[in-house]
Amino acid sequence: MGVAELFRPVLGEDAPITVRAYDGSVSTPTGAGSVAEIEIRTETALAYLAGSPNTLGLARAYVSGHLDVDGDLYTALTAMSELTISDVSPATLATTALKLAPVRMRHRNLAPPPQEHRQHGWMHSKARDAEAIAHHYDVSNRFYELVLGPSMAYTCAAYPSETATLEEAQFAKHALVADKLALKPGMRLLDVGCGWGQMSMHAAEHHGVQALGVTLSRDQALWAQKEVARRGLSDLVEIRHCDYRDVPEGEFDAVSSIGLTEHIGRAQLKSYFSFLYSKLRTGGRLLNHCITRPDARHRSHADPFIDRYVFPDGELLPAGFLISRMNGAGFEIRHEENLREHYSKTLKAWTANLEANWDECVAEAGQGRARVWNLYMPACAVGFDLNNIQLHQVLGVKLDDRGRSGFPLRPAY
């Protein structure tokens, strides 16, 4: 039996994927035509798959270039998403593992690709969190400019229409957050996990707000500080390289947390929301925008590939759990919405940018890193489309001592 045929029982006879292997073997689906082709280029790819028969093994083989996909990755991953390890019979798994045992033995000292990252130290300590953020964000600001586009926003956009551009959608997202926070001239905004500072700058430029943005990424902070100066916003915006837990100021009118909660962790959520509550004046609002899982049945810890290559220590929690923790910290919950379809569109736009600027992205971050992004963004788009992951915005307010929220009867958003 050739290498390609070895994988057909695992994929399924009707899975619309062709497998082509380095030994010349080819396996095609018995049913409908093929939507993509997996090319197993070397025995090293087999060794990675044998050593970790899950998404981590697949990622190692793909990132290192020993396995490739001919065709649209989103389409291929959508087809493969129908397959789960529980769908494969124990007998098939045992037979496949037995056949791959010699390969695994020949490559028993095989190291993972250098892009793979392992965390060290106490979970969610300041040092470990800084290490996780540096792994993902301190890659190359130019790389992110090429992938994210002029908006430099690395969070879910809010598309006002199906035909809106990525830049229009990112502006609409920041406008939506500003509307929910009821930002007005003279207010003070704390923007935690501010990234490249776009929410802080939007609040200053369009609402006359005094904004403090904080990020654990040194590269993000340096880029944002220069951009603040370039836009002439230095009197209104400060971007600080620090842990949000080290912000001494208080009495803010609003807090925006856009894409940070995923990095906080279940055990730290109570203290996280309590800390943000303590930073607000009476009547102040918090807008929490983060990726969630659809229910408690889905695991909270990230997929092995995402954890080792993309977002170390990331945890995704159900929206209801987040809301209960916000409420428990003292916030009255005023509004929430799910933007998961918007995140799929955002990821597809980023993937298109990566593909259009592929050579320059490789020059900036390296072939392996570019392949990580080329795999994880379509994979996440599939996850949002299939409702394996979601994106929720939750709005809370710090009531005064008489229970007044300061909200209009029918907010515009």
What does this structure look like?
The chain has helices at residues 3-11, 43-51, 55-63, 73-80, 90-106, 126-137, 141-148, 166-181, 198-207, 218-230, 269-278, 304-309, 319-328, 340-356, 358-365, 367-385, and strands spanning 17-21, 26-27, 36-40, 67-70, 188-192, 210-215, 237-241, 252-258, 280-292, 332-338, 390-397. The protein has 16 helices and eleven strands. 45% of the residues are buried. It is 44% helix and 16% strand. The chain is elongated, with a radius of gyration of 23 Å. Helix 2 (43-51) crosses helix 5 (90-106), helix 7 runs antiparallel to helix 15 and helix 15 packs across helix 16. The strands form two sheets. It has a seven-stranded mixed β-sheet, with helices on both faces. Strands 2-1-3-4 form a four-stranded mixed β-sheet. It has two domains: 3-106, Nonspecific Lipid-transfer Protein, Chain A, CATH 3.30.1050; 126-397, Vaccinia Virus protein VP39 (Rossmann fold, 3-Layer(aba) Sandwich), CATH 3.40.50.150. The protein is α/β, with parallel strands linked by helices and 413 residues long.
Report a brief summary of the structure:
By secondary structure, this protein is of the alpha/beta class. It is built from 16 helices and 11 strands.
Q: How many helices does DSSP assign?
A: 16
Helix percent reads 40-55%
Full CATH superfamily name of the largest domain: Vaccinia Virus protein VP39
Query: Would you report the number of β strands?
Result: 11
CATH architecture of the largest domain: 3-Layer(aba) Sandwich
The low-confidence parts are none
Which class of the largest domain in CATH terms? Alpha Beta
What value does the Rg take, in angstroms?
23 Å
CA distance, first residue to last residue: 61 Å
